[in-house]
Amino acid sequence: MSDRETVDPAPESDARPPPSGTEPVLPAADAPSDPPLPAVVPPVLRDDDGRLTGAFLAAVRGTIEAADAAGLAALVGDLHEADLGEIIGALDADERPLLVGLLGDAFDFSTLVELDESVRVQLIEDLPPATVAEGVRDLDSDDAVYILEDLDEAAQDAILDTFPAAERLSLERSLDFPEESAGRLMQTEFIAVAPTWTVGQVIDYCRETEDLPEDFYEIHVVDPGFRLLGTVALDRILRAKRMQAVGEIVDEDRRTARATDDREDVARIFERYNLISLPVIDDEDRLIGVITADDVVDVVMEEAEEDLRALAGVGDEEISDTVWYTTRNRFLWLLVNLFTAFLAAGVIGLFEDTIAKIVALAALAPIVAGQGGNAATQTMTVAVRAIATREVGRFNIARFVNREIMVSFLNGAAFALLVGLAVWGWYGERQLGAVIGGAMIVNLIAGGLAGVAIPLAVDKLNGDPAVISGVFVTTVTDCVGFFAVLGLATWWYGIV
Amino acid sequence: MSDRETVDPAPESDARPPPSGTEPVLPAADAPSDPPLPAVVPPVLRDDDGRLTGAFLAAVRGTIEAADAAGLAALVGDLHEADLGEIIGALDADERPLLVGLLGDAFDFSTLVELDESVRVQLIEDLPPATVAEGVRDLDSDDAVYILEDLDEAAQDAILDTFPAAERLSLERSLDFPEESAGRLMQTEFIAVAPTWTVGQVIDYCRETEDLPEDFYEIHVVDPGFRLLGTVALDRILRAKRMQAVGEIVDEDRRTARATDDREDVARIFERYNLISLPVIDDEDRLIGVITADDVVDVVMEEAEEDLRALAGVGDEEISDTVWYTTRNRFLWLLVNLFTAFLAAGVIGLFEDTIAKIVALAALAPIVAGQGGNAATQTMTVAVRAIATREVGRFNIARFVNREIMVSFLNGAAFALLVGLAVWGWYGERQLGAVIGGAMIVNLIAGGLAGVAIPLAVDKLNGDPAVISGVFVTTVTDCVGFFAVLGLATWWYGIV
After folding, report:
1. Which of B113, B205, B305 is most worth mutating to test chain A (most A CB atoms within 10 A of its CB)?
2. The domains spanning A192-292 and A323-492 adopt the same CATH topology
3. In this complex, which of A51, A203, A300 lies closest to B390 when CB atoms are compared?
4. I need a labelling partner for A347 at 20 to 30 A (CA). Which of A32, A136, B274, B477 fits?
5. Where are the alpha helices (DSSP H) in B1-51?
6. Tens-place pLDDT, residues B17-32
């Protein structure tokens, strides 16, 4: 399958979309001097699971190695930028600028938006600055900002210097908004009209204006001071008579975002109110941009993933990051956890005499500590997500905490019984079973309390519960678990 | 703040949107026989963090207790269904049907879509069947399916029996598609025209047809057999001249979903190609529905959360689930983990003689096991997400596995050194430091291997890596960790 001559009898529609309205590309059969080539059917782009195929990648590599611009264009020229982006990510670092160079003007710089950050930054460094500046100039403002924001200031200025003054100012304003804010996410191209305009005027305006936003879903209605009065979805425009004023069909009940709002809040508004697009206003309520759902789908995914990654201690790494960066990134979290492990070891160290007398405790205590950690992680995960999605607030915090404590108690009791009986059966010592069972219920309740209280406390102190709760929670369950087992045993067996 | 007479000088725009084009509701001041009431400003709906306020909830409760239909309508009648849904979720179970009853015809059943499943099912049971049937009949097909799919067949039939035959058939067809499929997610209302239609005809059709879909973003172009030829975004319609045929401006390069596709695949297509809406086709390529981005934002969030919850062993529970359901749900995962903990305890049990001679090992071995577990969890989390997002495939699997092993080796070496020196310093025994350090690097490499190999293997066997990888991975790091520490010590100190 790694042969690009492979003839696939059923070319996938995704793999070879017919040419759309994008930039024309050089057709492969454009070399009139050569004898007619045999018809080449390129390998399929993706397998049934939606993964890139090695065969397609090998074909791309082949054209890059042969510096075969026409062959490369025939292969990837019609691809969606998301697919091309994934191919670029799968290539080696030195092949990437070659691909962009071979495609020339046919390379759409919005492809860069689809790349992992480390790949994008490296590729931009490797390309001629003039090529980058020209490519970025053709983009919508939100894509341009997305690409520029990762570059250092000198590189940003070098690109922005080649822009017309108005565009430059608009991009600089977007870049002035905080990272991960609505202002960074919005596009500044939109259509705004006065409420006195008629539907006919709007349609005529759209027909006659060359420089409309690339895609739009709503018309915005503003007052003379450019303050947002409301929006009209395009389907409302289509339904209305030509003579109707947009002021009459405007939807005034519109959510808006401030440019300084965090993008996580923006994503939550989209999710809660099922929006397709959201106007962005400045501090004086003036309309300055629009965020669309297609951009937010990515944010929603990233934000939900951020909690997952934070809980596991892998931060914002991407699979294209270097070994060295990844190692450092993970080292820190492991180091913090190591301190807490030593703390737990210190607790065990207090009871060396007990362990020397009842060696079985060395095998049994980790069961109690581990089970507490697992139960606490369940509670903590639910709490972290409930906080992140704003499902928990003062109005229901008591109900939530009660529920978690009840669940911890019930599971604690169940496992106390189960483990107590198992230990009794295994070692034939009822007293040892009682010690382990007693410690189990104590630790599961402690874990449940910690699992719900620590994320809430971290949130109260304006920290990110996903990032730091885990360390504290397992510290609690480790220390309480070991202390409960060994302390109970010491007391019950009368060891001093 | 729990007094609804509270006068808030700065009413939030979210809290009191001006009346929009939704159902008219009874204004509160509609009782002409009473003397004029003092102007009542309701409390704000949400605090600055976007959480519901207790004051608003108390005000709603007050009107429900007083059976004050007009007061309740004044308070929540203009709210977005997402906000009303959240309020219903925050009420007690017995207050919910009272609220729906008091609102009467003003209650929009699309609010039910915003509720947690357990709340929705219970509320539908508590409402008069005729009310439910009437409410569901007014909904878009995707919302109706969403509500019906959780009910048992008898309840579904009771509602569907009250529908006109055509609508009933269409809903039944949607419900026949597998759970979590594109067919369940789509709405069956859409606009499809022949390619010979002109832009003017489309606009006139929209102006003259009463029964258009509630919101739409694209016109679909189909052949006489209703096979999809492509789509035209509404902004393309607005830009085009009246006389232009839609066949000339149609975008044929369109992604589609099959009705039987998993909704996770649908979400990935939206995310990858930045779509606003996606046509759904049947096995004969006929257009049968449309999925829009606003529905997918929820799916994307749920799917990313599913992995997070699966890794933590909390499944699909919602914070509104009962204590009993939650306890059972979590118990199973804890039980599986308990077995693996006993496995690790068995490993420790093999070395009781060694521990009896060197009690410090009882404190130190858990450090090695725990650190390995944490490092393996990092690797596993990255692997699980890379598999879920299709970032890892045959084309780059070797690069990915290599990277993870290198990272594990580097962090293993770092922590071997660190912990070895710490133990030497703590106990003053170089040999003990060497044992712990050696075991550490062994366990971190084993953990890295398990963290990447197990999710890949589970995926290969068509399991869900997020659900079962965690148990296996920590089993490996626990057993290897304890075995390495105690085995090395036994061998080095010559204990037999």
Report:
1. B305
2. no
3. A51
4. B477
5. none
6. 333 333 333 334 444 4
From start to end of A175-294, where are the E strands?
192-193, 218-222, 228-233, 257-258, 277-281, 287-292
Give contacts of B 259-278 with A, CB under 8 A: 265, 267-268, 270-276
Whether residue A486 contacts residue A367, with contact meaning beta carbons closer than 8 Å, is answered with no
Three state DSSP letters for B227-289: EEEEEEEHHHHHHCCCCCEHHHHCECCCCCEECCCEHHHHHHHHHHHCCCEEEEECCCCEEEE
Length of chain B, please? 496
CB atoms near residue A207 (< 10 Å): 14
Q: How many angstroms separate the Cα of B94 from the Cα of each of A391, B121, B122, B241?
A: 20, 13, 10, 57
Q: What is the CATH number of domain A323-492?
A: 1.10.357.20
Q: Average pLDDT per run of 10 along chain B, which is 496 residues long? A: 38 39 39 48 81 90 93 90 91 92 92 89 90 88 88 87 87 89 91 95 92 89 94 93 93 88 88 88 93 84 81 83 90 91 93 92 94 94 87 84 94 96 93 95 96 93 86 92 96 82
Q: Which residues pair with B290 in a beta bridge?
A: B187, B279
Mean pLDDT computed over every residue of chain A: 86
How far apart (Å, rounded) are the C-alpha atoms in residues A275 and A264? 15
Q: How far apart are CA B194 and CA B220, in angstroms?
A: 9
**Pairwise CB contact (< 8 Å): A304 & B308:** yes
Read off the tokens for A206. Answer: 């759209």
| Cα gap B218→B386, rounded to integer Å | 33
Tokens coding A295: 């951009």
- The CA-atom distances, in angstroms, between A65 and each of A79, A103, B210, B282, B417 are 20, 14, 59, 42, 45
Contact B276 A292 (CB under 8 A): yes
Map residue A139 onto helix, strand or coil: coil
* Domain spanning B192-312: CATH superfamily: CBS-domain (3.10.580.10)
Nearest to B92 by CA among A398, A439, A51, A408: A398
Burial of B357 (0-12, 13-18, 19+ CB in 10 A): middle
In angstroms, the CA A83 to CA A56 distance is: 11
Low-confidence ranges of chain A (pLDDT < 50): 1-36, 38
Which helix (H) or strand (E) segment holds residue A230: the answer is strand A228-233
Q: Rounded distance, CA A61 to CA A5, Å?
A: 14
Q: What is the pLDDT of residue A210?
A: 84
Q: Please tell me the total number of residues recorded for chain A in this structure.
A: 496
Check residue A19 and give its pLDDT: 38
Contact A104, A134 (CB under 8 A): no
User: Could you tell me where the DSSP H helices lie in A52-128?
Assistant: 54-65, 69-76, 81-90, 95-103, 117-126
Please give the Cα distance from A403 to A66 (Å, whole number).
65
SS3 at position A360: helix
CA B37 to chain A, closest CA, distance in angstroms equals 27
Residue spans of the domains in chain B: they are 1-127, 192-312, 323-492
What whole-number percentage of chain B has pLDDT above 90?
Answer: 53
Kindly state the tokens that stand for A304.
């939900």
Q: Domain spanning A192-292: which CATH class is it, in words? A: alpha beta
Interface test with B, best of A22, A216, A305, A475 (most B CBs within 10 A): A305
Residue with tokens 């039910």: B112
Distance CA A305, CA B325 (A): 26
Residue B386 in contact with partner chain A when CB distance is under 8 A: yes
Strands B287-292 and B228-233 turn out to be: unpaired
pLDDT of residue A25: 38
CA B178 and chain centroid, separation: 18
User: How far apart are alpha carbons B178 and A13 in whole angstroms?
Assistant: 24
